[in-house]
Amino acid sequence: DIIPQPLLDQYLSMTDPARAQTVDTEIAKHCAYSLPGVALTLGRQNWHCLKDTYETLASDVQWKVRRTLAFSIHELAVILGDQLTAADLVPIFNGFLKDLDEVRIGVLKHLYDFLKLLHADKRREYLYQLQEFVVTDNSRNWRFRYELAEQLILILELYNPNDVYDYLRHIALTLCSDKVSEVRWISFKLVVAILQKFYANSANALGLNFINELVVRFRHCSKWVGRQAFAFICQVGKFSLCFFVYIKFG
């Protein structure tokens, strides 16, 4: 009653390998690109009509097809709601996390948008996997690490101070020592955001421990770039850093 059945059948047939040989070699990519719009038109109550097609596209041998889905999975999650997302999208999302960098970047760019749609217990499972984004197929792909730092600044609000200290702190410190200055600079903002997180939640002990770690790692670093990093962190986070120093030293 929403769209003519023949039209839907034509769309679903776009994943047929024979169509790629006779119609367009990138027809599966076009199908993947249009899928969120088709899902929105049909509504979540008719997701069963598209589920198999989506899974077929998610396992397509062409990384461009999987990349297209990775860039839009957060939009599809909004359309389907939390229950269908947990049941049908999370397994595919997990697969994208282990895919090529060209596919992973699609997930990474909207990591916050996807995680915020999950229940807290399911969301917490990804704390263990965020560290994996630091490692890329090509170490020269610094924009990947830059994007990770940007996303982590947003993701901080989704987790409590203890989880931030136990998991995200390590990633932030690693990125602060990156070889690329652009990555280091956005990471300094991440460090300040973590300090502000501790301050806003009255987690002063965690904040002071983090300050001590920054002092040891950067302020007393034998290399000038480390000491410079500490100066930049102080510059970016004048208020939050001074607040914790005041608590410690009076």
UniProtKB/TrEMBL annotation:
GO molecular function, one term: protein phosphatase regulator activity
Record bears the keyword Transmembrane helix: no
Cellular compartments per GO CC: cytoplasm
Keywords: Repeat
Alphabetical list of InterPro entries matching this protein: ARM-like, ARM-type_fold, PP2A_Regulatory_Subunit_A
Coiled-coil region(s): none
PANTHER family in UniProt: SERINE/THREONINE-PROTEIN PHOSPHATASE PP2A 65 KDA REGULATORY SUBUNIT (PTHR10648), WW-BINDING DOMAIN-CONTAINING PROTEIN-RELATED (PTHR10648:SF7)
Protein name per Swiss-Prot or TrEMBL: PP4R1 phosphatase
